[in-house]
Design brief:
Blueprint (H helix, E strand, L loop, with lengths): L2 H7 L18 H14 L1 E8 L2 H18 L5 E5 L3 E7 L2 H15 L3 H22 L7 H22 L5 H15 L4 H11 L7 H12 L4 H15 L14 H11 L4 H25 L4 H42 L3 H4 L4 H10 L6 H10 L1 E5 L4 E4 L1 H11 L10 E3 L1 E4 L2 E8 L14 E4 L7 H6 L2 E4 L7 H9 L3 E3 L4 H4 L5 E5 L4 E4 L2
Length: 512
């Protein structure tokens, strides 16, 4: 037993009595101040992806821990009737978060180093949790303990993770300081900034790309054994939610068959070799460049986060895979489908375990699954709303406005290039296989299960992300023109639109 990690898991370990219930109806007297604060500060759309109440409930505990630790008050909520829901943060959250971390970096020389250590430790906890849970023979007592561990890990992860999106602002601040200190030409500055931001190492999902390339060259028993080991090692990378299904062996076999097409292996081998070399060159550039040591430390911090943010999410999927038997057992115990159990809060699950059955009607839980919900986490209060209350909240926070038709907009360049092609908008990663060869992928954010689609696309556009995100890293590996951080590309572009993606300037035009 790893006693150090067990001790860390006690840090935020809850009990059923210590947990609170969110407000279950639209009580304007309680939510009024928070709604006014959201309207005053503005709402920034943060994500569009498949969501569940269980994760959102964990976020509210993590948010309060983050507020206490960092001294910044913020809120967010998700809403929608479909499984794929929009999530909104309070305005200026990223900027305020970046200011907090920059201030501490300037005041505490070891602050950035300690953040990196903390995220490495969270990855250790993830691996430990994934190996701790048995696949069968779970008791009520065991389930309760594993769920307590899950919430403790979740809070530790996101009291830091809520603020890590500010690293992109920290990188931009460093760039401005580098420009002031730069003594060479503008061209050499541009080349340096383009080349130095590479991940410190390869995360799990990138290592998998290289492993499957090697396996594709094996034959006979060696190939079968390697394929089986690869599937067992990486199948969890599809499991963004606990009820997702792991990749089957056929998924990997289909990718290997693609690599056996004429010229494809050599193409992918060369691309990945170039990406490997770029990581080495980034380290060499940073060593050789004549800029203040403090700026080099700042760049190293960004490079570590480019690696560790993706690595921690890859291992989060390992935890999700490990917790699937826990929720399968809960589904059987409560007489509900697993998707419905995942739309319960922690306290509802703990109390239902104590009672031996759901503490309120199954219809109430199924309603969240079938008809959607809004989970409001305000500056001071929380609410889990359904039906008319959900719509009332949305109407208050998002009053109807007349908007002009947008035919062009911009984002941040992740990898240069210019392409004109038909667009395909994919909101749910489960539909990534719908992309046809040569189309431009338009999506909120990419993840490992998007990689086959990214390979056959002619370009990539995302709502989210900065130079640290999965889309930025993979577009460089695959040499695909890519624009990230557009905020609302999936709202503006429709599948079938003919668009021009100019990743030299960051401009996207809808042609037809």
């Amino acid at each position: 037993m790893n006693h150090r990690i067990e001790k860390l898991l006690q840090k935020h370990k809850p009990t059923a009595d210590s947990l609170t219930d969110p407000l279950m109806s639209l009580d304007t007297s309680r939510l009024g101040d928070d709604i006014a604060a959201f309207k005053r500060d503005g709402l920034a759309q943060a994500f569009i992806r498949r969501r569940i109440v269980f994760f959102m409930d964990g976020y509210r505990y993590a948010l309060r821990a983050a507020e206490k630790r960092w001294g910044i008050n913020f809120g967010f909520y998700e809403t929608g009737t479909e499984p794929v829901k929009k999530v909104y943060f309070s305005g200026q959250f990223k900027e305020k978060s970046a200011a907090v971390w920059l201030e501490r970096m300037n005041a505490q020389p070891d602050f950035s180093v300690n953040l990196i250590k903390e995220l490495k430790t969270i990855i250790e906890i993830e691996k430990y949790l994934a190996g701790k849970i048995p696949s069968s023979g779970l008791t009520k007592e065991g389930i309760t303990m594993y769920l307590e561990d899950h919430l403790s890990w979740w809070v530790q992860f996101f009291e830091l993770g809520f603020l890590w999106f500010s690293v992109e602002d920290i990188q931009q601040d460093a760039d401005e300081q580098i420009k002031k200190a730069w003594t060479g030409s503008r061209e050499s500055l541009s080349e340096f900034l383009d080349a130095v931001y590479r991940p410190m190492s390869l995360p799990v999902s990138s290592v998998e790309q290289r492993d499957i390339l090697r396996i594709s060259q094996l034959e006979g028993d060696d190939f079968e054994q390697a394929l089986d080991s690869h599937w067992k090692k990486y199948r969890h990378l599809s499991m963004h939610n606990i009820d997702d299904e792991p990749f089957d062996k056929g998924y990997y076999l289909s990718r290997i068959n693609t690599l056996k097409q004429e010229g494809e292996y050599a193409k992918q081998r060369d691309l990945l070799a170039l990406a490997n070399r770029e990581i080495e060159q980034a380290a060499e550039l940073l060593t050789a460049v004549d800029i203040p040591a403090g700026l080099k430390t700042r760049i190293e911090f960004v490079r570590w986060f480019m690696f560790l943010r993706t690595e921690s999410v890859d291992n989060m999927m390992l935890v999700n895979a490990a917790y699937r038997p826990v929720f399968d057992s809960l589904a059987e115990l409560f007489g509900l489908p697993i998707e419905a159990v995942l739309n319960m809060t922690y306290k509802e699950i703990f109390m239902s375990l104590q009672a031996g059955q759901p503490i309120f009607s199954k219809a109430t839980i199924l309603d969240r699954l079938e008809n959607g919900y809004a989970y409001f986490i305000g500056y001071n209060t929380e609410a889990l709303l359904t039906g008319g209350d959900m719509q009332k909240l949305f109407d208050v926070l998002h009053p109807v406005t007349t908007e002009d038709v947008i035919t062009q907009f911009t984002g941040q360049v992740a990898f240069r290039g210019n392409v004109q092609a038909l667009a395909r908008v994919i909101l749910d990663r489960k539909n990534a296989s719908e992309l046809k060869e040569g189309e431009i992928l338009v999506t909120p954010m990419t993840s490992p299960d998007f990689v086959p689609a990214m390979k056959i696309s002619s370009g990539i556009i995302t709502n989210e992300g900065g130079v640290l995100c999965h889309a930025a890293i993979m577009s460089r590996e695959l040499r695909k023109p890519c624009i990230i951080g557009t905020k609302n590309a999936t709202d503006i572009i429709k599948t079938g639109d003919l668009i021009e993606l100019n990743a030299d300037t960051g401009l996207i035009k809808i042609i037809n």
